[in-house]
Amino acid sequence: CAYTQWWGIQDVSDERCKREIADLKTTRSLEKVLRAQPKYYKRVLPKNPNVPIAEEDAESYGIGLIAQDVLTYNPHCVGKWTDTSNPPDGVDESDYKGEERFGINYRDWTIHCIGSIQEQQKMIQSQQETITQLQQQLADRVKYEEEKAFYENKVPFNPSIVKNVSSRNDEYFP
Q1: Which residues pair with 80 in a beta bridge?
Q2: Mind listing the pLDDT tens digit for each residue in 106-159?
Q3: Distance of alpha carbon 45 from alpha carbon 140, whole angstroms
């Protein structure tokens, strides 16, 4: 359900207009987004004498996903409709009219993208915690190794008399 504002179409999203609200499990959203294969393409436009199409529109490129691909891993985002338009030039009408076509609900894909970002953020936070723990372990190990080297490093103690400085009465002489 949607409504039109001066800036475009708005989806109705008011909580009062929804029921059976539950959190979406986004654990598979990242998997779905990673399987998507964005494409660019020129659209095959049907002939319709009532709807003139500018040549620059007919020859412009679009971007998106291919519904038949999405159907294999994210079928709830794909809808079906029957084409009743006139076929493009060079296509036999008997091969065109009445065929089942597929469309993609990109609004659902937006939610999967949000879920994917949330899942990646969980991964990043977990990795950051691991990095912090490993850094602390490394710092502790370096400190331990430095202290160990300090105590294991036996400095030779071989006192000798220095003229005009020490005498045989100094306590450290044998």
Answers
A1: 102
A2: 988 899 999 999 999 999 999 999 999 999 999 999 999 998 888 887 777 776
A3: 67
